[in-house]
């Protein structure tokens, strides 16, 4: 039976009911709805609406219900209740009779749903913080295991300067660290309880909303009832954190998809995260990574959809807001899955150090080194840049890397080039020079790895 039958003389059209009902997705808020209801029942005792005895009976019935939904959440879907709030209430009425009907005193589904969703966001946020950390740990472990491997660094997807695999992996650790902090920040901001704001104007009972908030583990209560029941900023913020993090995961996926191509051959993905082709037996496709890249679109799309649904909504609650849940659930589930899948991809990822070294050595990636060498010999950088450009054109013509040119060949382009040029052109030398903070010198990378390991160990412990 619907919660609001009194004013209506005619039942809802079944097509409208199906269109309007939210139980098929908001059943995921069952635990939070019961948690909020337990706290509300206690608050009602303090304002004299329920006796201690009644509250105890309700509490007991809610504990039984909580255990039951934790064990089998899908059972809820067998009901034709309008939404999770109606479902919980109907279950309580079935358990304790008319007493169950008292629980909704002073409360509206508007403050109730706002509270449930924030509680859900808090719980989900904690899980996501854990998955971000786990992926960071996977990146750091992979960096350690392949610390020696050199990798060509790219700009414009042209080989630019050599870096290392560990440096590449640590770049993603940094991105995820910002995602972590953005998520923490969003969780902190949403940590206020709307319960006791009623439908829109506040509840007519003198509820101690601060105490009620603390009872549900919120940091405090919201300040304005109109805002409280119509605020979905946290939904948009979490979707934004997810979108940006998915963008990072998508770039990670794209890098590895490229590194895994036959042409590059820098890494080999494990059989556990790839699939074969039904037609071409030689193929091993990077499906896990492609799906991470592809699913980024739907997470970003969910955020845009939510913003559009909220735009121009008059205060306070409107049914449009029911549209917040499916997009949020899907965006956060997808982000969660992709974080976990990215960590799985790293577990058995093999880095082919010979291929990465050969690629880093080719492509004239040490041209900047030659220019720096000329600068050290007092040639202004712009001029040095020009000289090296001409030298590279020549080297391409004679099909030699720079380090294989003879001194005679070098001197056609600049008389200051001498035998001491060769050590400067060695790959390790190009890495070793980049000692400033954040650079690819081996000791810088070691320091960054130690710092990341310490941070993650502290977080996990
Ligand atoms: N199912 C609704 C939602 O998700 C619950 C709030 C309903 N409130 C109302 N006044 N109809 O938004």
- Work out the helix count: 19
Bound molecules: arginine
Instruction: Report the β-strand fraction as a percent range.
Output: under 5%
Category by helix and strand content? mainly alpha
Poorly predicted runs: none
What's the multimeric state? single chain
Helix content: 55-70%
Main sheet properties: 2 strands, antiparallel
- The overall pLDDT, averaged over residues, is 96
- Termini, distance in Å? 49 Å
Rg is: 30 Å
Q: If strands are numbered along the chain, what order do they take across the biggest sheet?
A: 1-2
Number of strands: 6
Model description:
By secondary structure, this protein is mainly alpha-helical. It contains 19 helices and 6 strands. Strand 1 and strand 2 form a beta hairpin. The chain starts with 13 loop residues before the first helix and ends with a helix. The model has no long low-confidence stretch (mean pLDDT 96). The structure holds arginine. Arginine (ARG) binds next to helix 6.
Q: Topology of this structure?
A:
Layout: H1 14-20, H2 23-26, H3 30-46, H4 52-71, H5 84-96, H6 109-145, E1 150-155, E2 158-164, H7 165-189, E3 192-193, H8 209-215, E4 220-221, H9 225-230, H10 233-259, E5 267-268, H11 287-310, H12 324-347, E6 350-351, H13 353-361, H14 367-376, H15 381-397, H16 407-411, H17 421-425, H18 427-432, H19 442-460
Parallel strand pairs: 3-4
Antiparallel strand pairs: 1-2, 5-6
Helix pairs in contact: 3-4, 3-6, 3-8, 4-5, 6-7, 6-12, 6-19, 7-10, 7-19, 10-11, 10-12, 11-12, 14-15
Bound molecules: arginine.
Arginine binds at residues 22, 26, 83, 109-110, 113, 317, 321-322.
